[in-house]
Amino acid sequence: SINEETVELLQPYFNMEDYTLEYGKKVCGNAAGLLSWTQAMAIFYGVNREVLPLKANLAKQEGYLKIANAELAKAQEALDEKQAELDKVQAKFDGAMKEKMDLLNDAETCRRKMQAASALIDGLSGEKVRWTQQSKEFKSQINRLVGDVLLCTGFLSYCGPFNQNFRKLLLKDLWEAEMRAHKIPFSENLNLISMLVDPPTVSSLVLGG
Predict the structure, then answer these.
(1) E-strand spans in the chain?
(2) How many Å apart are CA 22 and CA 43, to the nearest integer?
(3) pLDDT per residue over 196-205, tens digit each?
């Protein structure tokens, strides 16, 4: 209930020399208390006159802050929802990218296999003619195998003690003529060394000699 007019009315008393707490104590203790109270109320009014607008502004700002916090909470909630949606979409995107990379890797592996297979087929196609010819030769060799083995065993069994000329006489003039007479197929100009000994053995014998 203190106002500015009340404080102005008190000023003449405050300006009196004997309006002090010490003087009031000398006169009467109750008067000293009243004197001190009036001074304190005047000071309180001066301070409160500056504090009240600050309090009002603080209350207003607190209201603004409350509204702002509510809006922030709402915005944060919306942000959290959007972030959750983004996380789901990101997870789907990551899964799709992984699947894409797996498919690309599989495609690259398949492409390399196809290239290797094509290269192998191209390489084998060049061997087809030779294999076909060798197959025919193998069939012919199988047909002549009995006669060739018969000549080789005869050579091993009987020609050892004789010289080269007599061996040739036995092999070419007698035995091959006998084979033809009995219609037993054999290889013309049969190479006994290649028939009886493998190439590494021949090489070791030559080098050892």
Answers:
(1) none
(2) 18
(3) 777 777 677 6
